[in-house]
Structures are given as structure tokens and as C-alpha cells.
Amino acid sequence: MNAREPLLTVHGLTTRFRVRDLTVYAVEGASFSVSAGETVGIVGESGSGKSVTALSIMGMIRWPGQIVGGQVFFHGEDLLRKPESAMRRLRGRFLAMIPQNPLTSLNPVLTVGDHLREVLWVHLGMGAAEANRRAVELLHRVGLPDPEQRMREYPHRLSGGQRQRVMIALAMACGPELLIADEPTTALDVTIQAQILELIDELSREARLATILITHNLGIVAGHCSRVVVMYAGRVVEAGPVDEIFARPRHPYTLGLLRCVPRLTRERTRSFYTIPGSPPIVTEPPRGCPFAPRCAFATPRCQEMTPVLEETGPEHLVACWNPVPAASAEEIMR
Ligand SMILES: Nc1ncnc2c1ncn2[C@@H]1O[C@H](COP(=O)(O)OP(=O)(O)OP(=O)(O)O)[C@@H](O)[C@H]1O
Ligand SMILES: [Mg+2]
After folding, report:
1. Is residue 326 within 8 Å of residue 248, measured between CB atoms?
2. Shortest CA distance to 291 belongs to which of 50, 10, 48?
3. Which of 97, 104, 132, 256 makes a 20 to 30 Å CA pair with 123?
4. How far, in Å, CA of 234 to CA of 232, rounded?
């Protein structure tokens, strides 16, 4: 593989769910890429399709969900064309995910040690003694105190932060190349959040992982990602280097999101900006820009035609018929 070629390229990913007689258009034509050694953030409000994108990449969409279009290239091969048996071998070995809810992802009747030994045995064929040694090492690496004792513990005995560390140890156990962390810190208090993110950073750096960090916290993106993908109603509406997007957000939705973030430098009297309305659950074939009903800049064209992602600056992509002029965006963000 060419060193500069992305490790993962998602192209036109489209995933839908059948719910009774309705279709939920969860992800519509999402495209982005991630290279080894970089962390890409995916942001967007609840329901914008972040987790469904992650699960689609991992080959974990289950009925009534269906991937109806697109490609997911990993090392140049389309994962969407691989049979489940091949995906099972890749998952946990080369593709790892820290899921959104760590408690339901751990089996309550298995100890921490059982979980770790199993992935080490299944993917790397390790025998009991070697797997035990490696499991203790991993727990130590993710900062769990007294790892030998923790090995014998059941998930419910651990705190939220400890469970999350176990999930990270499991994800890292077989030395993956791609790590997807889906809201890895939402349930945790702020100091533990910072520690967990720090740990993910460190591990990604050490192993030159391609990392996707899913969050709705833009502060986390600013601190931990080099590029960001903004999703709205299942679509990628803006993407680019974090510095560029934070300095010059061109999509009215991104601008709104960023203006919702409290900043210490702003005068106290200024009230926080919120985007009026709420994001839709899309159950009609998408027509026009999904953000148009909430957008202050929408024109009739926005209701009729769906904008596609286009380059507006170096590596800066935006899907909008009336992007905010760069100079105005800069002015607003100053
Ligand atoms: N199993 C499912 N059955 C039906 N609809 C689903 C299912 N899973 C997700 N969806 C729908 O797909 C859309 C995208 O959901 P997704 O979980 O990806 O959102 P998200 O961006 O991860 O949100 P959050 O920030 O709340 O985690 C939503 O409208 C959701 O209701
Ligand atoms: Mg989610």
C-alpha cells in the first residue's frame, strides 16, 4: 500500500432500516477516509447516523438494517463484498471498535479475563498461559490497578471508567489497524473522560492506528482529532482539517454547532446560540438539503435539490448550495 493512501475509504455508504412499513434513511451516501496514524472525528447531533456508519464499516448492521449502497475500502478491498465469515476474522483482529455502550457489550457471566483470553485465542491462537500473560499486560497498559485481581472480576463489579478501560484493552488486544471509538466517554465523569481519551490517543500514536472518534462534543474533536466529518440526518455535510473547519465553518449547520460551544473568551452577557428546530428522523426518500428546514440561508433550490460534497478549500469539503462566505465565517468565529 502506498504510504499516503488512506487505510480506510468510505464511499457513498448508504444504510437503511425497515421499521414496520417505514424506511429509516439512517446513512445516505456518506464518504470520507482515514489514514494510518491519524484520528478523524465524526460529529453530529443524536440520530445523525454516526453509530450506523461505524456499524456499517464493521459489518455489524443486522436486520431490519441493510446496507443498500456504497463501498468501504480497507487495504484496497471492499469490506461490503466480504462474506460474514471473513468479516468475523477481520473484526477484533484488524478492525476494532469500542462500542457506544460498554456495559451491554460485555457478557455479564464472563469475567474480564475470560473476555480477553477468548479474543486472544480466537484471533491469535494463543494458549491459556500465554493469553493470561498478555491479558494482564493489556489491563496494566490501559491503567487498571491490580490487573491480576481484575482478571477474575465480572463486569458489573467494575466502575464505568474501569469497564471502558476493559473495552479498550479488548479492542487493542490483537493489535488492530483501525480503531473506531463510538462516544467512548459520554457516560463518564469529566476527569475520567480526559484520561480515557488520553489513553486512546497514546495507544493510537504508538501503534499508528487509523482512528475514528465518534462524539457530539466538539471540544473533544478540537483536542484529539486532525480531521473532522460533520454529519446531519445521515449525510456528510462538511469535512476537513479540524483547524480549518473550526476557523472557517462553511456549512450553516457546522457554524451553528460551533456557535453552540461555550467559550471562555466570549463576554459573559452573550447568550449561547442554539440551532432552532430539531434534527429529523428521515423516513421519506431524501429530497433537497436535509438541513434546509432549519437553515437561515435556505433558498427554494435547497428544498428541491440535494447538494453534494464539493471542495471549497484545501481538503475542505462542504455540501451546501449557499455556503457561508469564508470571510463571514471567520468573522463570526473570531
Ligand atoms: N436498529 C435500528 N432500527 C431502526 N432504526 C435505527 C436502528 N439503529 C439506528 N436507527 C436509526 O438510524 C438513524 C441513525 O442512528 P445512529 O444510531 O447512527 O445515530 P447517532 O448519530 O449514533 O446518534 P447518537 O448520538 O444518539 O448515538 C436514527 O434515525 C436511528 O433512529
Ligand atoms: Mg450513536
Report:
1. yes
2. 48
3. 104
4. 5
Of the listed ranges 79-83, 169-173, 190-194, 253-257, the least confidently predicted one is 190-194
Distance linking the first and last C-alpha atoms of the chain: 41
101 Cα distance to chain centroid: 13
The answer, yes or no, to whether any atom of ligand 1 lies below 6 A from the CB of 26, is yes
Angle, alpha carbons 185-167-204 (nearest 5°): 75
Q: 8-225 has which CATH code?
A: 3.40.50.300
C-alpha cell of residue 95: 478492525
pLDDT one-digit tens code per residue, 211-248:
999 998 898 999 999 999 999 999 999 999 999 999 99
Cα–Cα distance between 200 and 165 in angstroms, integer? 10
Angle at 149 between CA 148 and CA 153, to 5 degrees: 120
Q: What is the pTM of this model?
A: 0.94
Reference 215, options 54, 69, 6; nearest CA is 54
CB of residue 86 inside a 6 A radius of ligand 1: no
Per-domain residue ranges of the chain? 8-225, 231-333
H/E run at residue 117: helix 112-124
Nearest CA to 100 among 215, 10, 265, 21?
Answer: 215
